[in-house]
Specification:
Radius of gyration: 21 Å
Structural class: mainly alpha
Order of helices and strands: HHHHHHHHHHHHHHHHHH
Number of helices: 18
Oligomer: single chain
Number of strands: 0
């Protein structure tokens, strides 16, 4: 499977997940009416998915490291499509909620693999380009989601938004399943099942506590206690779920922190913006979506430009400037009363977030060895699940005091990413992951065979010792 197809598969998997989330929001009112569901039940159609996917992302990434990213990608995408089709045929809201949880299991398998495949297929110094394409596609999906969802629900009903996931699942998963490649470099490393359970409980309780209305203090307490037990376990076990080579990296930790605070600020601001647009300015949902289009447009444009910025200015300066730009966008949104001012605010949000997504993700994935690329991808996806939950919880708690105060607080949250960005590498040419500076794809990607996109064949290593993980 060559690099072009790997990139296309990665983009397809990411877009399927992004579209699923956005079109569901549009479909929920019709779903509630047709199935006679309560508001709490409708909320659980989203919460069940979020809790399951957030709790399993890192362990799913570890499965990709062990059994091969393409295998896990194929299983995740096929399962996601099958669960979607089942939801489309669900007879009651209880079935929808249960199947959304099942869909979350496969979504957790799918998402880290989309990054792990890229890490295995592309050399570290060429990762920024594929990540930019992936981020731009997610931006397009976010923009198109409400429009596609609205058209499908209006013409075919809410069930149609789930059936659209079936075709891409078959088109991109079957080739990966038929040619899965050899096992990944970490296939001989035992799975840390106790660590996976502790992490799942901690993250699941955290996301559930933050998405509950009001925020659940008991859930936060359980998450904190479980996290403390997890840290103790990971320090003592011989083969931890979270390798020190990944979480012990100052740059990776800073990049994950930036992703959390920036996604928290963005999604919290968008939550507040809906009230500003629809209640203060009197716009309908379609009009609100059209006013926010500059966000998607600038997100796509900034993602495409980010590889150039990384080569010229490095990850540290690029990420810090983009984070400051996003914080400025939230500030402008807090004062905006006219359509041009709102457009400017959304443009700043999109430009900042698109750039940070590529730059910070590149640091996380580039610094990980191929043998633990799935764990790195799982951590990146976890940050992008926890961040929005934190942001929306913050916005919900503060919106009663006024939209201006809520947005100012979210701007301060975004500004926390600037000092975090100072821990990122200065230049893109800083130390790549060990053993990956040859520019050749690793065995997890193409099995050491020449890729159609490489000018010369890549030699096989003399000794196959890349599966060994760093000692902790």
């Amino acid at each position: 499977m060559n690099r072009r197809w790997t990139l296309a598969s990665s983009v397809a998997g990411a877009v399927v997940v992004a579209l699923d989330g956005t079109v569901l929001t549009v479909a929920q009112p019709r779903l509630q009416r047709d199935l006679g569901a309560s508001f709490a039940e409708v909320q659980w159609t989203s919460t069940a998915y979020l809790v399951v996917v957030a709790s399993l992302l890192v362990f799913a990434g570890r499965l990709g490291d062990r059994y091969g990213q393409r295998r896990v990608f194929a299983l995740g995408l096929l399962g996601f499509g099958a669960a979607s089709a089942a939801i489309g045929a669900a007879p009651s809201v209880g079935w929808v909620i249960g199947l959304r949880a099942v869909q979350g299991v496969f979504g957790a398998l799918l998402q880290p693999a989309t990054l792990g495949m890229l890490r295995a297929a592309f050399p570290p110094d060429r990762l920024a380009g594929p990540l930019a394409v992936r981020t731009a596609a997610i931006g397009l999906a976010a923009a198109a989601g409400p429009l596609v969802g609205g058209a499908l629900v209006t013409t075919l009903g809410w069930r149609a938004v789930f059936f659209v996931n079936v075709l891409p699942a078959l088109v991109f998963a079957l080739p990966a399943l038929l040619r899965p490649g050899p096992p990944a470099g970490g296939s001989r490393t035992p799975l840390d099942v106790p660590g996976a359970v502790l992490l799942a409980v901690s993250l699941g309780c955290l996301v559930h506590a933050l998405t509950a209305r009001p925020v659940s203090g008991a859930g936060l307490a359980v998450a904190a206690v479980t996290a403390a037990v997890l840290v103790r376990h990971e320090r003592r076990t011989e083969r931890p779920l979270l390798p020190a080579a990944v979480i012990g990296s100052r740059a990776v930790g800073a990049a994950l922190g930036v992703l959390v605070v920036v996604s928290a600020a963005l999604f919290g601001a968008l939550f507040v913006a809906a009230y500003v647009l629809q209640r203060r300015l009197g716009l309908d949902p379609l009009g609100s979506s059209l006013r926010s289009l500059p966000l998607a447009v600038l997100m796509v444009a900034s993602a495409a430009l980010c590889p150039v910025l990384l080569r010229r200015f490095g990850a540290r300066m690029t990420t810090a400037a983009a984070t400051a730009l996003l914080a400025l966008g939230v500030l402008v949104l807090s004062r905006a009363t006219s359509i041009p001012a709102l457009g400017c605010a959304f443009a700043l949000l999109g430009a900042g977030f698109g750039t940070v997504m590529v730059a910070a993700t590149q640091v996380v994935v580039r610094r990980a060895e191929v043998a633990v690329a799935g764990v790195a991808g799982g951590l990146q996806q976890t940050a992008l699940n926890v961040g929005p939950a934190v942001g929306v919880a913050t916005a919900t708690a503060l919106i009663g005091t006024g939209t201006g105060r809520a947005l100012l607080t979210l701007a301060a949250v975004a500004a926390l990413g600037v000092p975090l960005a100072c821990a990122l590498p200065r230049t893109e040419q800083d130390r790549p992951a060990p053993g990956t500076d040859s520019g050749c794809p690793q065995p997890g990607a193409d099995g050491g065979r020449p890729s159609p996109l490489t000018e010369t064949p890549c030699p096989r290593p003399a000794t196959e010792n890349h599966h060994l993980m760093p000692k902790t």
